[in-house]
Amino acid sequence: MGFEPGDVKVEVSADKMQASITLLNERVRDQITEDSIRSALIDKQVIAGIDEERIKQLAANPVFNVPQVVAQGQRAVDGKNETVEYKFPVSTEKSIEETATGSLDFRSISNFVSMRANELLAVKQPPTLGTSGYTVLGDELKARDGRTINLRVGKGARLSDDGLSAISTTDGHACLIADRITVQNTVEVPAHVDYSVGNIKFIGNVKIRGNVMPDFTVEAEGDVEIAGNVEQATIKCGGDLNIRGIIFGQGQCEIDVVGNAMIGAIDQATVRVKGNLQVNNYVRHSNVAVGGLLEVQAKKGNIVGGDIHCYRGIESPYIGNNMATLTKLTVGSNPFVSQENEALEAKFSEIDKQLKQIRAAISAMHDRYPPGSRTSKTEEMITKLENTRSQLEPAAKALNDQIQQNKAQSSDFKEAKIKVSQIIYPGVIVSFRDRMQYKTQDEQQRLCFYEEAAEIRTGPF
User: Fold this and answer.
1) Among 176-185, 198-207, 298-307, 404-413, which is the least confidently predicted range?
2) Could you tell me if residue 454 is inside a domain?
3) Which of 52, 72, 92 is the endpoint of a domain?
4) Among the residues of 289-334, which ranges form H helices?
5) Spatial separation of the C-alpha atoms in residues 392 and 354, rounded to whole Å
6) With contact defined as beta carbons under 8 Å apart, do 306 and 286 qualify?
7) For the purposes of burial, counting CB atoms within 10 Å of the CB of 100, is it exposed (0-12), middle (13-18) or buried (19 or more)?
8) Does residue 64 share a domain with residue 126?
9) Residue 222 lies in a domain
10) Sorting pLDDT into bands at 50, 70 and 90, what band is 453?
11) Cβ–Cβ < 8 Å for 280, 302
12) Residue 176's beta-bridge partner residues?
């Protein structure tokens, strides 16, 4: 037996997501059952999301004149869109900009993010499916599945075969340029390196359109190109160096180059180049070490003062001056191997001294305390000494092996020459392989110094 219209009231919310029933007539208490409540809901087309537990409770303990929620719809849940997990910080500041040459504008970078080739740059997180919903009237609420996105890469990056990740193809700075994952191996400073820029340390190449001002450092694992001068600064270059201007060192400038170098002029600086060094104008009062050949190219170029040590030779139109300024030139021996070996030999000597002391101590302990007469404390002391010896002996061997290897590689270059296309003045000390020396006493023109039969000889340029 069902309810009469005045016995119950069924209400559906405006969004059709909830239905409630209100019992109005206590005289029909005996007619209130689970089935009669369901029938009242069906009469109002409420067929989904019905709370069976609440209907059971209401049938057992009717509540009158108070609406009771007995059905609840389920809202649709859209799927999550595909996302990208970047393996480098993505700047939220001003966008990264490229220069006209395709390099990165240094001023638009707040922090360098150095990545090596073949490193993972980004990974796509897959989208999720949507979950459909329904109203209490049984209408389906459709959900949207998460959308996919295209992973976009620019210079210095590639997509994996499945397109789900981005991988670097070069060493450099990882960033987003026009929403493309990019690894740039060259950064560019369009002006001077000064307080507006700060020190530079970069995994790739650096281009500087202005000067490097005093007390600043530029360090790059790749090539360095400087359009202006370098003033009392530090340059560390893992590739080739090109300074179009002049190095004004004033005794407070250090330049280290792993590859070759081209420099406009050098004045009162320390320059170390493991490859060849070309200087356009002059080298004055500087300490220069070159693992290859030093060439001064200008017609009136000269080398005056300082200590120049080059493995393969020196070529310059003028060397020294008419004031007989002391100028020391050394060729035929590798300045870098000898410097490295000096440091290695000092370290080896220190370890070898420790080893001798430890071996003597162990020998003395064994003589004084033969087996069977040692206390636990004595045994502990001997064990500690032997452990220290076992650690130092391999270290000493490794150092000695490196020293011997360096010596084998540092074979003297007996073909080294010092060529003077114009004039060499008095006061120049010429040294071959640190074994033979010759000091010029007179002005001489267009000649070549070379080694023959363990003597320094001269011949025409």
Assistant:
1) 404-413
2) no
3) 72
4) none
5) 8
6) yes
7) exposed
8) no
9) yes
10) confident
11) no
12) 181
Q: Are residues 229 and 286 in the same domain?
A: yes
178's torsion region: left (phi>0), alpha (psi -120 to 50) or beta?
A: left
Q: Are strands 140-141 and 133-134 parallel, antiparallel or unpaired?
A: antiparallel
- Output the six-digit token pair for 298: 């200008």
> What is the domain count for the chain?
4
Q: Which of 38, 72, 106 finishes a domain?
A: 72
Planar angle of CA 205, 207, 212, nearest 5 degrees: 120
pLDDT tens for residues 225-255?
Answer: 999 999 999 999 999 999 999 999 999 999 9
Structure tokens at 446: 């267009």
Inter-residue contact 223 to 185 (CB < 8 Å):
no
Q: How many C-beta atoms lie closer than 10 Å to residue 221's C-beta?
A: 20
Of the candidates 439, 426, 306, 304, the one whose C-alpha atom is nearest the C-alpha of residue 456 is 439
Q: Supply the angle between the helices 376-409 and 335-368 in degrees, to the nearest 10.
A: 160
| Structural domain containing residue 208 | 187-329
- Whether 372 and 321 share a structural domain: no
| CA distances, 115 to each of 112, 155, 400 (Å) | 9, 13, 35
- Residue 202, beta-bridge partner list: 220
In a domain, 216, yes or no: yes
Instruction: Quote the tokens at residue 86.
Output: 């970047």
Report d(CA 289, CA 308) in Å as an integer.
6
Adjacent-strand bridge partners of 310: 290, 331
State yes or no: pLDDT of 104 exceeds 60: no
Give the gyration radius of the chain's Cα atoms: 42
Distance from CA of residue 314 to its chain's centroid?
A: 37
DSSP conformational letter for 239: S
3-state secondary structure of 30: helix
Instruction: Look at the pTM and tell me if it is higher than 0.70.
Output: no
Structure tokens at 52: 């069976």
